[in-house]
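#struct-pred
JK: can someone run the complex with phosphoric acid mono(formamide)ester? inputs below
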Amino acid sequence: MKHFTCVQDIGDLREALREAFEIKRDRFQFNELGKNKTLLMVFFNASLRTRLSTQKAAMNLGMNTIVLDVNQGAWKLETERGVVMDGDKSEHLLEAIPVMGCYCDVIGVRSFARFENREEDYGERVLEQFIRYSGRPVFSMEAATRHPLQSFADLITIEEYKKTDCPKVVMSWAPHPKALPQAVPNSFAEWINAAGYELVITHPEGYELDPAFVGNARVEYDREKAFAGADFVYAKNWSAYAAPHYGEVLNKDRSWTVDAAKMALTNDARFMHCLPVRRNVIVTDEVIESPQSIVIPEAANREIAAQTVLKRLLTQE
Ligand code: CP
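RT: done, structure tokens with the ligand placed:
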């Protein structure tokens, strides 16, 4: 694997899961692999789980790690080519990226959608520039359109908790006060489709995702029907994808908050969320604190997902 930005990059999913569980059984068994290798993690946006889990995964492999918060202490970066740089941005990404590549062996990048232009966001310009100009293996720590490390961890978690070979997985839109990207739901749909599970996506009208990510999933606007018989409920907010409302919050309907009444419609479903989560907006205290909630083991699996990906990037498997 040269770079990791989406489910296709991981290749055979069953083999990737087998490797992930092998790592989970003894996460220090490959601690010589990263000796004298350096991971650079570049953050254009905030993070708790991705930062800690990826750094821990790298340390498990014996790597050194450097974290760069672009917005704290680095020169302000210009990302557009052709701009006359006489404003507040002192350095261009086109110099900064190859320079970063000089100091490391692998680069992780977090760069969210900006919501200024859908085509630019969905073109993944920042991530693509790292791939093109760093000279290093690059992996996504959440980009404009996908969050593959999260989805890999979600899939590992479902594998651990599923009671049937082909569980019914329901991804439900939930309200949020701010406009959030589509990266997590896009990516989750992509990975769950690739795993071959039954995927139902439920959301208010207007929140349709890019059909390229929805794939074979069933879109069900009647959320009671969607929740019926679910084995897993994956809650997530996202902003509108469709033009002319790309990146907008169309409603904040609290009747979509995942509560005990909705969970009662399911097949004793496990509750999942990528975190951070706004309690009593996305999900009630009662549901997230219930025995059905697996948000903490889900977050713990971020370390396993990151370590599996880093191991492959180090060995070019
Ligand atoms: N789920 C996730 O990516 O969390 P962070 O934004 O805290 O990294």
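RT: quick notes.
The mean pLDDT is 97.
Residues 47-50, 142, 150, 274-276 surround phosphoric acid mono(formamide)ester (CB under 6 Å).
JK: thanks, will look after standup
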